[in-house]
Write a structure and sequence with these properties.
Elements (H helix, E strand, L loop, with lengths): L4 E3 L6 H13 L13 H11 L5 H18 L7 E5 L5 H7 L7 E6 L2 H14 L4 E2 L1 E3 L10 H4 L3 E5 L9 H14 L5 E7 L4 H7 L6 H17 L8 E8 L4 E8 L3 E5 L2 E5 L4 E8 L3 H10 L4 E6 L5 E6 L1
Parallel strand pairs: 1-5, 2-3, 2-6, 3-4, 3-5, 6-7
Antiparallel strand pairs: 7-14, 8-9, 9-12, 10-11, 13-14
Helix pairs in contact: 2-9
The structure holds S-adenosyl-L-homocysteine and N,N-dimethyl-L-histidine.
Length: about 325
């Protein structure tokens, strides 16, 4: 029987989290990889973020997809599979699926098991004839698609500007890995957050309801639960700043005092105001993103943006 969530060959697991946390807290500049935000609670908090008044990207991308979906999928809807990277709740995907009546398989790839399960349940209710083949895995490694899906015509989808969570050289590697995951000749639709006034950006990552702060701090809750760490959540503070030179939002957890944290038998010292760098979110110009896509071997096709030029959806071939 088909398993509800299949595992990609190289998989994300607890030991990977342990290694990355120990490694990330050991150097002079402490950092943690942002893919670990997305445990069950982290995936829920991200969904809450997408509904915040300050967090514009989700609303803009949905509006662009709704306005242009027919045009976007024109010529791409001849059956086959829709393969999505970092699918989360798959809410945006529904907009494309509704315009692809001959699609036979939807293959979402994510590190969040709960997000994949929730999406699979909802989509099989909405589209009973569409087979959802959820794949638990890390898209940065290049994912082996199930054999039957690998034989189909494919359309790739990577919304959310999750590509912005990688520094440019890594983003090129990620886009190249996705090109190799997809069958030769596949089209790829990708959402990209664009440069804009720094105040808008800083507010989007420092929302007044404190949801982004809870999302950031949840990384420490996860380390406490899964690694037996003893992070005192009240002794760390969320911060998000915009670095205009690098063109990126940086999220940090700031130690409010001098303290020591123990996990997996090791002790990690923090001085007051020391930071753990937890996420980058790069904002691109059309030219910059096009350059990255080309460096990864993609041909840049059409693109769509909103009136203010805040967000873009690209078609790559
Ligand atoms: N596509 C959705 C969700 C974006 S949030 C949207 O546009 O709203 C980013 C998603 O990517 C999360 O669901 C997270 O679990 C997933 N993700 C992050 N890093 C990943 C990685 N390296 N491999 C696979 N999935 C990843
Ligand atoms: C998933 N990713 C594109 C989000 C972003 O905007 O960088 C994650 C996020 N971090 C804080 N708020 C949202």
């Amino acid at each position: 029987m088909q398993r509800a969530v299949e595992r990609a060959e190289r998989r994300e697991d607890e030991s990977d989290f342990a290694l990355c946390v120990v490694d990330g807290l050991s150097g002079p500049h402490k950092s943690l990889p942002c893919r670990f935000f997305y445990d069950a609670r982290g995936s829920e908090l991200f969904e809450e973020i997408t509904r915040l008044p300050e967090y514009y990207p989700t609303r803009l991308e949905i509006a662009l997809l709704e306005a242009h979906a027919e045009e976007i999928v024109r010529g791409l809807g001849e059956g086959g599979a829709l393969v999505e990277f970092g699918s989360g709740s798959s809410r945006k995907t529904e907009i494309l699926i509704a315009r692809l009546p001959r699609l036979s398989v939807y293959a979402p790839i994510d590190v969040s098991k709960t997000a994949l399960e929730g999406a699979r349940r909802r989509l099989s209710g909405l589209y009973p004839t569409l087979s959802t083949r959820a794949i638990l895995g890390d898209f940065t490694h290049g994912v082996a698609l199930p054999e039957d899906v690998a034989q189909m015509q494919q359309l790739g989808f990577f919304p959310g500007s999750t590509i912005g969570n990688f520094a440019p050289p890594e983003a090129v590697d990620v886009l190249r890995a996705m090109r190799r995951t997809l069958a030769p000749g596949s089209a790829f639709v990708i959402g990209v957050d664009l440069k804009k006034d720094a105040r808008v950006l800083v507010e989007a990552y420092n929302d007044s309801a404190g949801v982004t702060a809870a999302f950031n701090l949840n990384l420490l809750t996860r380390a406490n639960r899964e690694l037996g760490a003893d992070f005192d959540l009240a002794a760390f503070h969320h911060d998000a700043i915009y670095d205009p030179l690098r063109g990126r939002i940086e999220m940090h957890l700031v130690s409010l005092k001098e303290q020591t944290v123990e996990l997996l038998g090791e002790r990690f010292h923090f001085h007051a105001r020391e930071r753990i760098h937890t996420e980058n979110s790069y904002k691109f110009s059309i030219e910059q993103f096009s350059g990255l896509a080309r460096a990864a071997g993609w041909r840049v096709g059409r693109f769509w943006t909103d009136a203010r030029g805040w967000f873009a959806i690209f078609e790559l071939r």
